[in-house]
Design brief:
It is built from two helices and no strands. It is mainly α.
């Protein structure tokens, strides 16, 4: 039997609702989605150069407060 631990995360109501809708859209659970993302987190933390020691406490923003991600770097094409 695989051993697991629970994690509790507090988020704004609108983020909670958005996440539940997204999970339903993909016919899965929020737990499965979070586990999937957490498995991939270490490589993305390194790529983002997240500061060692990190951010200790930060207010969780609602989806409307989060700025859009910049587009990925595209290779330069010389003409």
């Amino acid at each position: 039997m695989r051993r697991v631990k629970n994690i509790t995360v507090a988020v704004p109501v609108d983020l909670y609702r958005q996440t539940r809708r997204l999970a339903a859209e993909y016919d899965t659970t929020v737990t499965a989605m979070v586990a999937y993302l957490l498995e991939r987190l270490p490589i993305h933390v390194e790529k983002a150069r997240f500061p060692k020691g990190g951010i200790k406490h930060r207010r969780v923003r609602s989806p409307q407060e989060i700025p859009p991600s910049p587009p990925p770097d595209l290779p330069q094409i010389s003409l």
